[in-house]
Structure formats: structure tokens, C-alpha cells
User: Fold this.
Amino acid sequence: MAITSPMQKEQYLYPIKAFHVAERLKLKDIRERFTRPPLEFSNYEMILKYAEDSYAFIYNYGSVVFFNVPDELQERELSSIQEYRLSTDQGLTTDVYFLEVQEQAGPIKVYFDKIIAPKLSPEAVKIACMLLAESTALEYYEVLIENLLEKTNQWSKKLHHQGRMLESSEDLIKFIGLCLDTKQSIISNLYIVDSPDETWDSVDLDKLHQELKAMMEIDTRYRALEYKIKIIQESVDVIVELSKSKRETLLEMIIILLIAFEIILSLIKWH
Assistant:
């Protein structure tokens, strides 16, 4: 990673702020929209450099992370991709973390609100920003899934108390479509990436990656999402089956009524 370390101060606190702005970002389509050309670019990640120790990390799954960037510049960069940003009713998930440099500190330590390191390591910066981006994306989908679970619970309660679904077929189709669309979005855009290359040759960086990932509960939260998606899928399957049975029953009743009507007409003609 082409980030150079500066002359270190005795102690300095670097802010890291993450935004989940979209469900998907095509980096090649937005690379020219920012105030700086990319320092590094791939289909997965784009890195911008504003000044010494000031960077932005943009990820294709919709998260943007600013490392030691003024708020005004953050807003300017985010406004440049406004058309890709999530609608306000879906909500914008954000998170803030810190990297504190203490020259007298020992090995890198991970806390719930910051990392403490003896120097500003470019590799540590990249790991921290990547995991904060993943955590922010997870939070967005956690909110989305909770809303779907609440809606699914409403359907279940109506079936339990009333024994039938009162919503129109259009409402039912919209709900099923929303569930399928959300599931597909999570499968397509959200995944737990492998350990970055920087951890392969460094025990300390691998330890930082594992500890920070555990502190943010990335794996646990991802498995919880998978479990909730499974619950929603099972509920949707039941609703679809009930809806199908309801239509089949209605069709059978219509056929019976038509047959009865034909019999009545025949009897009338016979008499």
C-alpha cells in the first residue's frame, strides 16, 4: 500500500469515520468524481490521498471511510456521489473509531473505541479502515433485516389470531418481492473478505486484524444475519404456500359452483 509514514509525534489521535452510502458502488464509474485522483485502484477498493496522513478508502460494497480527513472535505466527497447514495428513509449508517499513536506504547493494542500503536503504520491504517467499512455495511443490513423481521412477524400474528391473511394480493407480492430483493442484495454485496495481504508476512498485523475483527464482532454479526435471512425465507415460503392454497381452493369452489349451475340448468330444462 502506497501510504508513507510521517515523522511521529509523541502522541496523536487520528479519527477514522465510516459511512455506508450505497448498496453497491461501481468504482470505475466514480473514480473521476472525487477531488483527488486515486492513489490505488482495484475493482474492490479505491484509495485517495489528500495530504500526509489523510486518506479516503472507497469500497465497492458501498462503504466510504475517511482517515484523518476534515469534516468539510468528507461532505464534499460524499456529495460528489450523491446520486448513488441511499434514500433517507433507508437511513445512512456511520461509525467512528480512532487510531492513537503513543511513541512509548508497546505492541499494538485494540480497544472498543480505538487502537493504540507506537507508530503510524500504513498497514494498520488499511486494516482498521477495511474492518470499520465492513462493520458499517453490516449495520445497514442489520437494520434492513430487522425491519423485514418485524413485517414478517406482523404476517405471522395475523395468521395466528385471524387464521387468514387480510392483505391484498398486491401487498403480498410486494412483501415477497422486498424479501427476495433484500436477500439477493446481501448475497451480492455483503461478504466477509479474506485477511488482507499485509497480514500474511506479519504476526503483529495478523494479530491486529483478528483482534479488531473480534472486537467488532464481524463474523458473529454476519452469521446472525444469515440466520435471520433463513427465518425470513422460511416465513416467505409458508406465506407463498398459503397464498397458493387459497387460490387453488377458490378455483375449486368456482368449478364446483359452475358444475352445480350446469346441473340446475339441466334440471330446469328437463322439467
